[in-house]
Specification:
By secondary structure, the protein is α+β, with helices and mostly antiparallel strands. About 35% of the residues lie in helices and about 10% in strands. A two-stranded antiparallel ribbon has the order 1-2. Strand 1 and strand 2 form a beta hairpin. It is globular, with a radius of gyration of 16 Å.
Length: about 110
């Protein structure tokens, strides 16, 4: 929320401009209209697996509030693009020094 207010733009727009766009991550967003590509999410329960979120659930419509703490859907290919960029030094979204800061212990 703070980033969106400080920049005057939605978080989805900033993410697209600064991360997903430069990395070619075209299938990563806060929601998708193509729910046929989403899988059903389950969680362990006392009697086995319990439904957590169906494909037409939480990520089938724009969220009330965009947030980066577990609020994105993506494809394996897009996740691989992101991790590859980080492993290769962060370009084009981060410098090698920024990647080192993010991946070093506190």
């Amino acid at each position: 929320m703070l980033v969106a207010r400080a920049t005057g733009r939605p978080l989805s727009q900033l993410l697209r401009e600064r991360v997903t766009g430069p990395l070619g991550m075209s299938a990563t967003a806060f929601w998708t209209a193509d729910t046929s590509r989403l899988s059903t999410a389950y969680r362990p329960g006392p009697d086995g697996l319990e439904l957590l979120d169906p494909p037409d659930g939480a990520f089938a419509a724009p969220p009330a509030m965009e947030h980066l703490s577990g609020g994105l859907v993506s494809t394996a290919g897009d996740v691989l693009r992101f991790f590859t960029a980080m492993a290769d030094g962060g370009a084009p979204v981060l410098t090698p020094d920024e990647v080192a800061q993010l991946s070093s212990p506190p």
